Amino acid sequence: MKGREFIIKKVLFISNILSHIYAFHLPYLQWFRENGFEVHVMTNAGGQEASYCDKLYDIDIERAPFSPKNINALKQARKIINEEKYDIVHCHTPMGGVIGRIASRGMRNQGAKVLYTAHGFHFYKGAPLINWMLYYTMEKYLAHMTDCIITINGEDYERAKKHFQSQITAVEKSSGIGVNIDRFSPAEGNEKETLKKKYGYEGKFILLYAAEFIKRKNHRFFIEAASELASLCPNIKILFAGKGELLDEMKKYAEEKSVSKYIDFLGYCTNMPELFKMSDLVVSASIEEGFGINVIEGMAAGLPAVVSVVRGHKEMVVNGENGFLFSVNAPNDFCRDVSELCNSTAMYKRFSEKALLSVQKFSISNSLKQMVSIYKKFGV
Question: What CATH architecture is 10-178+364-377?
Answer without folding.
Answer: 3-Layer(aba) Sandwich (3.40)
